[in-house]
Design a protein that fits this description.
Blueprint: H1 9-18, E1 20-21, E2 24-25, H2 35-49, H3 54-59, H4 79-88, H5 93-106, H6 112-121, H7 129-141, H8 151-163, H9 173-181
Helix pairs in contact: 4-5, 7-8
InterPro entries: RNaseH-like_sf (IPR012337)
Organism: Champsocephalus esox (pike icefish)
Protein name: HAT C-terminal dimerisation domain-containing protein
Length: 209
Amino acid sequence: MKTTGGRSTKKAEQGVSSGFFKDEELTEGWGKINKPRFYESVVATLTKRLPESSLVQTLKALDKSSWPGEQEDMTLFGEQEVHRLAKSLGEPAGEAVEQFRDWKLQGTPPGKTLERLYRASRTYLPTSAECERGFSAVNNTDNQSRNRLREESLSSLLFVDLNGHPLDKFDPVPFVKSWIKAGHRLSSSWKPGRQREEVEPRHLWSFLT
């Protein structure tokens, strides 16, 4: 990243060249940022704030880039970590260790148990940022003007808010059609208060018969 930049570097560079970034006009700054030193500072700050935990050490066993280079050091490397991870995730620990041993020593593809551990290891979040976003979404959705939402409705709204597509890529037409087809109505179509039954008007002569 220090030399090529991250995923958003190209967008930022295009914004600088055009003078606008996310519809905001950019103004002249105090000078260019030293990119390598900036990334080094970010890494140092994150390392200080997020020291390696026992979980990180456990997950490193499944990362081939962290494996030792010498073959003799690979004999028992990572087996305790894989055993611990398998037990914590409810997978057969002995089977996971055997598959891990075949993978690291013989180069065979990971077995099903080890593959499940590998997929699970990629879902761990390094920080609580996602949880904080969830709390913010709850506060924005369940506010004073919408404080009578059912739990099911609130859960659905939060799921869309946190996992859905951006608004500029969302096509609501199919969902609106299915919603109307299911017999739902707009909230504006309901009149407040008790509704009187409509009585068909009768002609005067009908009372005389």
